[in-house]
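Example record

One chain of 345 residues, shown exactly as stored in the release files.
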Amino acid sequence: MDLQEAICPKCGGPSPSGDICGRCRASGAEWFSCEGRVSLVRCPNCNSMRDNNGWADCERSREDLEYEAAMSAIRLSQDIQKPEISVNLVENSKNRSFAHISITGSLYDRPVEGACVVEILWQYDSCDRCSRYHGNYWQGLVQLRADGRKTTHEEQEWAKRIAYQAEEELQLLGDRLSFVTRMEEGREGLDIIVGTQTLGEQISRYITRRMGGRFTLHPTLIGEKEGRKLYRITYAVRLPRYTKGDIIYVRNTYGEILGAEGKTISYLDLASGIPRTVPESTSSRYIGSVKDGIPMMVIYQDGEMLGLMNEETGKTEEIPVQSWRKIVSGERIHIIRDDDRVIVV
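Predicted structure tokens for this chain:
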């Protein structure tokens, strides 16, 4: 060593600056620390995980979660350079694993290495959503009914699909407590019991937007919490009095209902074949449904008249030709009667 070269005051070795050399600084430094134990809390029902921010849905594997927990237990000095961390996970039981951790890097231009073991403890607790769901908790009731009639099976099934779609959308946005608690089918319609008022209102809006009709809110006070009044809300959804395929008499003609949206109904004008839309409040009269149509065989056409035969009774009758509709001999059609008038549907 050159006599002019500065030395480390601690070990006597070379030190370019004359201060304590990198080897001595590294040997006495606590360049990493490692927590001995970390806990993970998982819901046994839905596999969601709890952290300091509360519960969150989680589809990650146990191995991924344990690796992340082991890495979170390590604290490195800000002076460490190019750190490399190796984690070897050993599952001891359902509730316990051990992470064997090796760390290498560079500290004050000197290579360093260390090791530690982290115990990973698994705890299981029912999450906020599952606790409410299995406790039959609810804040809202969507009551599906129809004006002047019973809801059809098809309408109830459609409403169920809409409800589950709304539930999925809200939960994807992070609203974990917006769930469908249960559904109950009754003689007049369908009841959808939900975990939050947000979901109840969204279901009601979706149903009326896609199936027509309207809804009203009816709150019921159920108590107080921390000085705040608590309510359960019934969302009374009323579908239009007509459903797809109904035959009505409206504006001096017969029409076949095509659908409803909002406060309007759409129908096919059976005299002209033109689709029309009228307000739901328009005066009209129910005639029947295409499902109840009587099957008839077209046996001839004579000018502006069609000859029909009832396939069951063999009786024949004549009806006017519909100019917008091409009907040929041998074709089977269906009719509905309104007193002495015959309507081809």
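Notes: The helical segments are 22-28, 62-72, 128-134, 153-172, 197-211.
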